[in-house]
Fold each of these.
Amino acid sequence: MRGLVIKSTGSSYIVRMDDGTDAECRIKGNFRIRGIRSTNPVAVGDYVNVQRDKVQCTKEDGNSVYWITEVEERRNYIIRRSTNLSKESHILASNIDQVALIVTVNHPVTSTTFIDRFLATCEAYRVRALLIFNKIDLLTEEELAQLAELRALYESIGYETVEMSAISIQPSDILPLLAGKVTLLSGNSGVGKSTLLNALFGREVTRTGKISDAHDKGMHTTTFSEMYELDVRKDDVRCTKEDVRCTKGWIIDTPGIKGFGTIDFEREEVSHYFPEIFRISRDCRFGNCTHTNEPGCAVQEATIKGSIAISRYESYLSLLGDCSESKYR
Ligand SMILES: Nc1nc2c(ncn2[C@@H]2O[C@H](COP(=O)(O)OP(=O)(O)O)[C@@H](O)[C@H]2O)c(=O)[nH]1
Ligand SMILES: [Mg+2]
Ligand SMILES: [Zn+2]
């Protein structure tokens, strides 16, 4: 039997079987996947093969044991490196179509450095990123102008952006962006992730506000990703009717995880993950230009002229600076 892992609790997994039912599944102690050293061999978003345990499977026993016997090859996956020194990583989710980053111009302020690090990480994973600016109802005139500027900046680089107030949003306002896709939801604590989820599902799927904030701040709680199936109807769908995938969508919540950490970038690679910097870098005099102090650097020139945003260039420098130190957030 084949299914999709929609929730992980640490000791077991909830798998949505191809027939639409959910089964609680486990893995045997010796279960390993070649090539990946992670603390969790099975992740939310994985397609797996499941076997029902023959011994315990009697007619009276509705809760028979299911074992995950195989994980299908992943299209992609997003990891979070453990903060300890074990070098182990934790797979947050796999087979993702896009990552939606919720940001707020204010309440709280989301820095452009945070946004840019996040986008660079998405580029490195080759996962599409969607920027959702939330809490626009709270913004002053000045902050609204800042919002428009930020949206124009990221749109010009090629990222899709939207703005909303999660407290008053209708599911149909946001569903077209999510239909037919597996979307990983991310963003700093307090930006409105839980509020958006609850608005999308019309019920409390996850707690908002103070409770989760307390968890985010200091308490060492282990949290696990969960995947929610969206109720997408035909009128919510933006793409063509022929595309059958557009009839459903999934959203993955990783509670308690602020963002996925930047991966180990090689110094020479960093500019590859800033699309507009990468495009211009072809005109640099030296092929191995780091765009910091070399003569004939087209990137520095474009930054001075204003065709590359200073905030983006600064984020680039900040990521470059991290490379030698291997910092993780
Ligand atoms: N005014 C306003 N408040 C919001 C909006 N979205 C979320 N909030 C509030 O911001 C706080 C944090 O939201 P929450 O969803 O818990 O953020 P999370 O930490 O990202 O899950 C809560 O008190 C929400 O009610 C919004 O669009 N406008
Ligand atoms: Mg939350
Ligand atoms: Zn250069």
Note: The chain has three domains: 2-76, 96-253, 267-325.
Amino acid sequence: MSSFIEMIKNRRSVYALNKDLPVFPEKVIELIKDCVRYVPDAFDMKSQRALVIMGDKNTEFWNAVYDTLVAVSGGRFSRERTDSFAAGAGTILYFYDGAAVEETRRQYSLYAENFHDWVMQSNGMLQFAVWTGLRTLGVGASLQHYNPAIDAMVKKMFDLPESWTLVAQMPFGGIANAPEPKVVEDIDLRVKIEK
Ligand SMILES: Cc1cc2nc3c(=O)[nH]c(=O)nc-3n(C[C@H](O)[C@H](O)[C@H](O)COP(=O)(O)O)c2cc1C
């Protein structure tokens, strides 16, 4: 088991994916469930949602993303990107559930304006936990944002509640090609220490 910081360092955007997961798909699903269960949320609202798409559904999904983007861009969208995501083993769609947030927002009306930020922060924590956790399983992933253009299509395709808002898409799979090493800069320009 590598150290916490090693796990963080190893997480990268992996775009060259294949369908050969180095673990059983159940392991990936278990990781996602654990992350949704244990990642923090403001007032413990349990506002975060995930949809895991695998197998033929993944290809169907990325074909539909392509069709949607071609339609909204007037034909100026290339197949290459969506095909590369369809080549992976699956995709995790991240949402928050507005219905789960509203009751807590009413209860804590003094902070009403903060709730949107908090929900997005918790969603980001969830994405990071899953992304990093996948890499510890040897699974590569990247983070994509075709929302809001694809929102209506996604809701219809997977028959999702009206109150779910799509935040991000994370294609994952076996690592066909590792990314180039990361360029690191002088960290003291970004982190200040006062004693
Ligand atoms: C909030 C957020 C949004 C991002 N959106 C996208 C995206 O839409 N498409 C994409 O290919 N990468 C996206 N990325 C990935 C970043 O470009 C990537 O993490 C960054 O370049 C550093 O590379 P690394 O992930 O390999 O460390 C996003 C990352 C974050 C944190």
Note: Strands lie at 16-18, 48-54, 90-97, 140-141, 164-177.
